[in-house]
Amino acid sequence: MLPRHLSPLVLLAAVMLAAGCDEGPVGPQGPPGPPGRSETAVYTENFRFYLSDAERSEDGFTTAVPYELDLPPSIADDGAVFLYYRAYGTWTAAPTTVGVEAPNDPPRVDYTVTLGYGYDVDFLEVYLEASSADQAVWDAIAETQGLFTEAGIGDPDGVRMKAVLLEDLAAAAKRSVDFSDYEEVARVYDLE
């Protein structure tokens, strides 16, 4: 037997359940919702990086090459740019930092060099940043074979670069793609 104060509640619940079981005719379909994105747009830009085109910063630690790209505002606001460079038969994701040992010195890292990038609407900038502003270091960076690529970052033929531009990073994130692996990115988004 239920306590007195629960009896009216149980009766009310039973009546509501019985009334909710009636099925009537199906009503008309509602208006369509706003258009949505089923997939993020992905673009690629291919270009070459020439160290000889780079401008050195005032502090001497960085050198950069700006590129004019037609980046829509949606990429700068909600998307992303991923940069890859061709080295040793594969596409390698930037940024990349390497330690450099001077020849004929005891084995140790004498300085580091980072190949990186930045972007905003209408431009992409590829830069090198060294842990030293010494001109001898920059001369060595330009002349060292094997630094980032087989021929070196100072290759007079330039370093092949590929930028992957995503319009909607949130939608792309749902696919759980490893953006550090260009081969996977190319397979998932059907890129060349």
Q: Widest sheet: strand order?
A: 2-3-8-7-6
Mean pLDDT: 83
Helix content: 10-25%
- Radius of gyration, Cα only, in angstroms? 29 Å
Q: Which word captures the global form?
A: elongated
β-strand number: 9
Q: With helices defined by DSSP (H or I, 4 residues minimum), what is the helix count?
A: 5
Distance between the termini: 75 Å
Structural class: alpha+beta
Number of domains: 1
The unreliable regions are none
Largest sheet entry: 5 strands, antiparallel
Strand content: 25-35%
Key attributes of the depicted protein:
192 residues; 5-stranded antiparallel β-sheet; 4-stranded antiparallel β-sheet; 9 strands
TL;DR of this structure?
This protein has helices at 7-20, 73-78, 135-143, 169-173, 182-189; strands spanning 42-49, 55-56, 62-68, 80-87, 90-93, 96-100, 111-120, 123-130, 159-166. It is an alpha+beta fold.
How would you portray this structure in words?
The protein is α+β, with helices and mostly antiparallel strands and 192 residues long. The chain has one domain (48-189). It contains five helices and nine strands; from the N terminus they run αβββαβββββαβαα. The protein has helices at 7-20, 73-78, 135-143, 169-173, 182-189, and strands spanning 42-49, 55-56, 62-68, 80-87, 90-93, 96-100, 111-120, 123-130, 159-166. β4 and β5 (90-93) form a beta hairpin. The longest helix has 14 residues, at 7-20. The model has no long low-confidence stretch (mean pLDDT 83).
